[in-house]
Amino acid sequence: MWTLTFSNLRHNRAMYLATFLNLYLGGAILTAFASLYESGSAPGVSKADRDTLQTMALVIGGWGALIIAFGTAATLSLAVRQRERQIALLKAAGALPGQIRRMIMVETAALLAASAIPATPTGMALGRAVTAALKSSHQVSHGVGHRFGATALSIGFGDIVLAAGGAAVVAGRRAANQSTAAALVTSATDDAGLGRKRVIWAVVLLGLGVNAAVMVATMMKDEGYDAMSVAGQACILTALGLAVLAPVLIRATAAVLGPLMRGTGGYLAEAELRQHSRQAAGVLMPVILFVALANGALYQQFIQDDANRAAHLTPTADDKGVQTLSFLVVGMIALFAAVVVANLAVAGTLHRRREFGQRRLIGDTPGEVRRSLGWEAAVVLVAGLVSGTLAALVGILPFSYARTGDWLPDQGIGVFLGVTAVVVALTMAACLGAARRALRTPALAAVGA
Length: 449
Prior knowledge:
This protein folds into two domains: 188 residues, no CATH class; 259 residues, no CATH class. The model has no long low-confidence stretch (mean pLDDT 81). It contains 17 helices and no strands. 84% of the residues lie in helices and 0% in strands. The longest helix is centred in the first third of the chain and has 40 residues. It is an all-alpha fold. It comes from Catenulispora subtropica. Its main location: membrane. Belongs to the ABC-4 integral membrane protein family.
């Protein structure tokens, strides 16, 4: 089993490297903020310092764990989905369903073990840096020491192990239970529908997000940071709900942009998105999270700051703490989502090297292949920007009403344009850069591989 595992890891380097990087970064972030909780629990720490450290650890660690788990599960699921044909051939050669499941679990365990080695010192350094920043901004006393021990490691890596293990179990069960013929068919085209469980999860998450938004607008007027906290939950829950519906969003966006794509030679891009929407959905999920959470957290913080200035309120230590917390949330989530977007875009593009070779053999030029891929990336970006903006507005609009009495904030679109520029540049650079690398391989060699 270990021989087959390392052979798979070697021959699917791009996808498994993306998974490794996600596990590494997620483990580093979660252990760093778990160390704040451990530092606050140390003997001799004052109650005020303990509350500051543990609140920051619970807020960022809690929501960060959910988002990182979501991104990790999406990456692992895509890694297994890209190998459906290979798994089908293994089953045709005599592999049992239990052996398929065990193979996927062993691969996941190997990646977890490998990622934990660099994630531990990185998490320690990041936690120490956050503690130093809190001291320099006078949010905790200078006598507070940073602790990184068993508690930080168990909480941080425990979340990653649960997320990766759960994703491996689900992906392994699906791959093992699917018949060989069905696996060969789904490796060539996607199922057009959504599973019942996915629909239920989407409805639940969207319902919770809307419920949080209604609470902010109706029950939390003028409650300041409590309202901001619930509005942030509305953004996150709505973004997760829309991310679950990513395959449907891809197909709907491709249908809307279809006439424009066909008019500029994007026929193959439209067909690819229609037949393999779940592959593109893997990139769309982190784009939605990036756009929603970055816009939501930043606009809410700016609305709160402007409301305090309008009321001639001097920022207190609590105000500075919440502001730091907001920017840390944005920074952590944006960094992780950006890495996931780049990883999935690069791995997904490199995985299609053989397809690009076939297209070149039938007459497509490298420029036409890149243009088609650019259209696919554009569809993902349009779907991600629209869906992420809607999720952000679910939190921003009720919070603006609760703090100012107006539904529309006065902060302008500068933040939105900045977030849009970052996600567009990142996604396009990852997709087209990987395509350029894939197209360096001669067409016959790519098809033979």
